[in-house]
Amino acid sequence: PNLTDLQDSHSTLQTEHSRTIGNLRDLQDSHLCLQTEHSSTTKNLIDLKDSHINLQIEHSKVTEILKDPIPWNIRGQIAEELDNWKENEKTFIKTNGAKRVLEYIKENRCVFVTASSGCGKTSLVRNVALQMQNEDYEILPVSNRKEIIKWYNPRKNMLFVVDDFCGTYTLNPTQFENWKNLMEALVDRKQSSCLCLVDYRFIRTGKCNICHSFCLVHVISDL
After folding, report:
1. How many Cα atoms within 13 Å fall on the side-chain side of residue 2?
2. How far from the centroid of its chain's Cα atoms is residue 41's Cα?
3. Segment 86-108, tens digit of pLDDT
4. Mean pLDDT of all residues in 106-127
5. Which of 70, 97, 132, 195 would staple 223 via disulfide (CB 3.0–4.6 Å)?
6. C-alpha distances in angstroms, 170 versus 6, 164, 198?
7. What average pLDDT score do residues 57-68 get?
């Protein structure tokens, strides 16, 4: 070939080389775009997974709320009441009586705490209940037996705290028998316990015939 042919061939090769370099740059740019898209897709997938997990958690919470036999507004009232107990707890002086009741409630499903008026049995029982809360018991102050029937949950450790059991100054025998029957049913359930406050005059006058299945603790003025 002559010089002209060589020059033409060289020029053609340069053109092909430039085109090849251009195609390579296009491929590199395309690769970078794909990497960016892949990263974005991966991030979106992670976000979707996180969102799915959060939705599952929220769904579980809602399901638990719907299964909860205690209405949310009542739970709010109970939480506020327990906060008041904790606030009053700051001035409570630990006593042998509180230690005894704590030991008994761990060993028995149902404990009746009796005392004469003014001995501080309410503060004692609340102190014991708060200590049981630290041991993963759900504390539920109740004022009537229907609340225990409605709120009982076999999947939870529950401690029902009954204040002024069957009244403060009078005792209705029928009401007492209904309470006693319910307490006997609780004795057979390992997950639930019950702390009851009973005025000592009911015991002293024989008006309150506590079943032998229950633990009866009488606290005196020095607790």
Report:
1. 1
2. 38
3. 999 988 888 888 888 888 888 87
4. 81
5. 97
6. 124, 10, 11
7. 84
Which CA distances in Å does 96 have to 63, 131, 137?
43, 14, 22
Give CA–CA dist 112/211, Å, rounded: 10
Class of domain 72-218: alpha beta
Amino acid (1-letter code) at residue 187: V
Distance CA 22, CA 25 (A): 5
Give the ranges where 109-210 is alpha helix by DSSP (H): 121-133, 145-151, 173-187, 200-204
Q: How far is CA 181 from the centre of its chain?
A: 29
Strand partners, 160: 140, 194
The secondary structure element, H or E, covering residue 114 is strand 110-115
Tell me, yes or no, if the pTM score tops 0.70.
no
CA 27 to chain centre: 57
